[in-house]
């Protein structure tokens, strides 16, 4: 560590060598230097020598590691093993602020699963939550699992939705700041969910998303019918939304996607930066990085946006 608390630059290849892989991470400060030394050795053993390792000047918690060659999956595996719980982004291009952010809602932009909380008003939370958990892990086909859970809500009063929103649903820490700051940088944000517009529309407004895509619960005379209205919003919808929005923004637009479950995987794989937020193993394994240590503002740090430029969400 330098006197200022940052790592002195470490080079194992000559200056001027272009990097193929870039990793940025936020880890436990007390063990950062020892973890880095272990990571350097582990990477060298995998024939992935590090060209440079340094703390970002304007985001002092963020360690950047540059490598001239290697596989992103191997780099993530080594850093995961050596640094323990951390916030991480690995890219094969210079890291930029995205022009499009597409995010899942439940257990990502909010800390809850809306259908599970709504089921609690019908006395069925445990049963519905068990199905939700298996679907998020990829153990159940999404549409059939969704329809099964929705059917269990038949007869529940629409008033329960408003009550659930007021009493149970809240943005994840840092969600408003993340979306507002990205917007200030010229990034469009879209909320796309396998959940329901009755929740997602007010949540989108609350956090600052410009567009919301989701399913809609069918109602009749003030009660849920146990059915859905229209086409299903699923993993394919999420990936298509990312593609459609990217096309509107323009060629080579840098995109960021975030989610936590199996139905987020196609979207995460399609984005320039696919981020798993406190995710199930299925999503984490397919992502370019993850947030596990900090709140959602960790994404701003990994993008290199200094805290003085963050915007408080309304």
From TrEMBL:
Entry keywords, A to Z: Amino-acid biosynthesis, Hydrolase, Magnesium, Metal-binding, Serine biosynthesis
CC cofactor: Mg(2+)
Keyword Magnesium in record: yes
GO molecular function list: L-phosphoserine phosphatase activity; magnesium ion binding
UniProt catalytic activity: O-phospho-D-serine + H2O = D-serine + phosphate; O-phospho-L-serine + H2O = L-serine + phosphate
Family, as annotated: Belongs to the HAD-like hydrolase superfamily. SerB family.
Record-given protein name: Phosphoserine phosphatase
Family matches, as InterPro entries: HAD-like_SerB (IPR050582), HAD-like_sf (IPR036412), HAD_sf (IPR023214), PSP (IPR004469)
